[in-house]
Amino acid sequence: MTVTDFRPRPEPVEVARVTLTAMELLEVLWGRASTAPASPSQMRVLLMLEHQDGINLRTLADSLASTPPSTSRLCDRLGAAGFVERVVSPTDRREVRLHLSSRGRAFLDDLRARREQEVKAVLKLMPAAKRTALLEGLEAFCDTAALQILDNASHAGEQSA
């Protein structure tokens, strides 16, 4: 039996529980595909930079719910690995902008390709109708999560200003 067998419209708490289980299973699948030289915290930085290229250190720290010194050290390690580039802002020399380097982009592309192979192997075993439903639900989740992350980041930036 599944969650939807009990309720035609599951409550967020039930969906959250199943989503967390799916995320944990994805972690196991991704672990099999990973040769990542980056820690989970560093991965979060890389993913944030990929989506917010040129973000400054303070805004990145706020988005990660971290402190600027901790975030700076993470970026230092990622810079030493060649994944992140720091560039002085053209409008304010005190501000440093962070960019994902071409090596960082290549790393994420390669990691995603390996992870995708692991996930595709599972999806191939699912009935087509269930894959369609999963896709629709995940698209809605991603859209909503992205909006919430951007909204939280903008509010954090307003509060620190």
Provide an overview of this structure:
- This protein is mostly helical.
- 70% of the residues lie in helices and 7% in strands.
- It contains seven helices and three strands, in the order αααβααββαα.
- The protein has a three-stranded antiparallel beta sheet with strand order 1-3-2.
- A hairpin with a 7-residue loop joins β2 (84-88) and β3 (96-100).
- The protein is globular.
- It starts with a helix and ends with a helix.
- The mean pLDDT is 86.
In short, what is this structure?
The protein has seven helices and three strands; from the N terminus they run H-H-H-E-H-H-E-E-H-H.
Index terms:
single chain; 161 residues; mainly alpha; three-stranded antiparallel sheet; 7 helices; 70% helix; globular
Please state the average pLDDT score. 86
The outline comes out as globular
Uncertain segments are none
**Helix content percent band:** over 70%
Number of helices: 7
How many whole angstroms does the radius of gyration measure?
19 Å
Question: Which secondary structure elements does this structure contain, and how are they paired or packed?
Answer:
Blueprint: H1 3-6, H2 12-33, H3 40-51, E1 55-56, H4 57-63, H5 68-80, E2 84-88, E3 96-100, H6 102-123, H7 128-160
Antiparallel strand pairs: 1-3, 2-3
Helix pairs in contact: 2-6, 3-5, 4-5, 4-7
